[in-house]
Amino acid sequence: MSRQSISFTEPNDEWLKAQIKNKEYTSKSELVNDLIRQARKQQAEIDWIRTKLEKAEQSGFTSDTKEQILAQSKSLLNE
């Protein structure tokens, strides 16, 4: 594991200390690593959604009504 030296603003440092004091984490390193893992997971989800949206946009638009779209969606669920 690589070792890093980072600086925090006072409010962020106080928040980190509070998390450790509340026994949410045992160290600042554990907390920062968990925050990074969460951010990486969130970015992966955003990338997945972005890919789906781009694919949907490339497939074109529809002139179907919302009722027709709903009926089509329901029929797909029942298959």
What's a concise summary of this model?
It is elongated, with a radius of gyration of 23 Å. The relative contact order is 0.06.
What is the secondary structure topology, with strand pairs?
Blueprint: H1 10-21, H2 28-58, H3 66-77
Question: Could you name the key traits of this structure?
Answer:
mainly alpha; 79 residues; 3 helices; single chain
What does the model show?
The chain has helices at 10-21, 28-58, 66-77. With 79 residues, it is an all-alpha fold. The chain has three helices and no strands. It has one domain (10-77).
Number of domains: 1
Described by its quaternary structure, the protein is: single chain
Our Rg estimate from Cα atoms comes to 23 Å
Name the beta content range: under 5%
Judging from the principal axes of the Cα atoms, what is the shape?
Answer: elongated
What is the H/E order?
HHH
List how many beta strands DSSP finds.
Answer: 0
Distance between the termini: 50 Å
As residue ranges, the low-confidence spans are none
Number of distinct helices: 3
Give the overall pLDDT as a whole number: 93
Give the class from helix and strand content and strand pairing.
Answer: mainly alpha
